[in-house]
Amino acid sequence: MCPEHIIELMHQYLDEEIDPEKEQILREHLRSCKECEIIFNELKKTVAFVKSISNMQAPADFTAHVLARLPKEKKKVLAARLLRNHPFLSAASLFVVLMMGSLFSTWSQDREFSVTNQKNLVVKNNTVIVPKGEVVKGDVVVRNGKLKIEGEIQGDVTVIHGEKYLASAGHVTGQIDEVNEVFDWIWYQMKKSAKEVTGFFEQ
Amino acid sequence: MDAIIKKRIKQVIKGDQDAFGEIVEIYKNSVYQLCFRMLGNSHEAEDIAQETFLRAYVNIKSFNQDLKFSTWLFRIATNLCIDRLRKKKPDYYLDAEVAGSEGLTMYSQIPSDTPLPETELESLELQEIVQKEILKLPEKYRSAIVLKYIEDLSLNEISEILELPLGTVKTRIHRGREALRQQLRYV
């Protein structure tokens, strides 16, 4: 039977925690004791065997399976990744934000009365009148004021933040738009820009 | 490496699952291997390894950044494996009769050994023998031996993973080593 303290030294050796003095004691003992030498070699062989089997790989679709089982991702992160991966989208969304900002500010700032300068229009105290029997050729835009149509307008009419009265005898050949709410205003601006763009290409 | 993991963990805390996917890629083999050596079958090993990563994801905010991430991950995995081993009852016995067959036992369902090139056969057999002997170890020795020799971790890391004093870890490894020696000495 091998001495317990020598077995202990063998384990210290295998743990790589033996100090040189004790290693010397172990080596000397092993030289003189056949039985201990066998045990020591068997222990070393055992360690080598156990180490030799360590080479395994997870199944191929392991990561996908794990990700599929995770709780749902937060929307904020999804959006952030979308923008990171598609720079054009982030540029576009920034553009939209800035556009909206400027639109809102122009909507709230623009409180001055104004009217398209057309012949035959009569302006009285923020009220624009198309007199009876008169014909206005071209579009009319009125901001922050009223529009009374008693005659005829050959073109589009737009009233922003105001009112329009169409007398029974009055006549408008084009479209009539009344813009009184912010969203109408934005829609109007979008249509206008679209028209400008298409107009630019038509030219 | 550690810096990358730390960065990924921060992204995961923000909810980024792609970053977590990268973490899984880095550790999947070692976690799977740990589970396989502890449990001894690939189906359960995959199940518990997935569960490990799932728990890690859900509890990532409680991860103490002073610790090594792998230490924390291996701790989750070992605990899950030990839980599974304690709950586990044998699903079937080889000598149980196969349902709907007269006198056929599960032994007859095992394919006969096909001849393999001699060296391959030998190394395969050796692997199987060693795996079988590891599975025979009591779970407390098994986890220490697997972490030490299969995952190649230091005694200090193992003591952190198992949340045990260093001395206890050493004793378990010594006993595990001795038990394996008894079984493998004539191989």
TrEMBL record, chain A:
<protein>
    <submittedName>
        <fullName>Anti-sigma factor</fullName>
    </submittedName>
</protein>
<dbReference type="InterPro" id="IPR027383">
    <property type="entry name" value="Znf_put"/>
</dbReference>
<dbReference type="Pfam" id="PF13490">
    <property type="entry name" value="zf-HC2"/>
</dbReference>
<feature type="domain" description="Putative zinc-finger">
    <location>
        <begin position="4"/>
        <end position="36"/>
    </location>
</feature>
UniProtKB/TrEMBL annotation, chain B:
<dbReference type="InterPro" id="IPR013249">
    <property type="entry name" value="RNA_pol_sigma70_r4_t2"/>
</dbReference>
<keyword id="KW-0238">DNA-binding</keyword>
<dbReference type="Pfam" id="PF04542">
    <property type="entry name" value="Sigma70_r2"/>
</dbReference>
<dbReference type="InterPro" id="IPR036388">
    <property type="entry name" value="WH-like_DNA-bd_sf"/>
</dbReference>
<keyword id="KW-0805">Transcription regulation</keyword>
<dbReference type="InterPro" id="IPR014294">
    <property type="entry name" value="RNA_pol_sigma-W_bacilli"/>
</dbReference>
<keyword id="KW-0804">Transcription</keyword>
<dbReference type="InterPro" id="IPR013325">
    <property type="entry name" value="RNA_pol_sigma_r2"/>
</dbReference>
<dbReference type="InterPro" id="IPR007627">
    <property type="entry name" value="RNA_pol_sigma70_r2"/>
</dbReference>
<dbReference type="InterPro" id="IPR013324">
    <property type="entry name" value="RNA_pol_sigma_r3/r4-like"/>
</dbReference>
<keyword id="KW-0731">Sigma factor</keyword>
<comment type="similarity">
    <text>Belongs to the sigma-70 factor family. ECF subfamily.</text>
</comment>
<dbReference type="InterPro" id="IPR039425">
    <property type="entry name" value="RNA_pol_sigma-70-like"/>
</dbReference>
<feature type="domain" description="RNA polymerase sigma-70 region 2">
    <location>
        <begin position="24"/>
        <end position="89"/>
    </location>
</feature>
<dbReference type="InterPro" id="IPR014284">
    <property type="entry name" value="RNA_pol_sigma-70_dom"/>
</dbReference>
<feature type="domain" description="RNA polymerase sigma factor 70 region 4 type 2">
    <location>
        <begin position="128"/>
        <end position="180"/>
    </location>
</feature>
<dbReference type="Pfam" id="PF08281">
    <property type="entry name" value="Sigma70_r4_2"/>
</dbReference>
<dbReference type="InterPro" id="IPR000838">
    <property type="entry name" value="RNA_pol_sigma70_ECF_CS"/>
</dbReference>
<protein>
    <recommendedName>
        <fullName>RNA polymerase sigma factor</fullName>
    </recommendedName>
</protein>
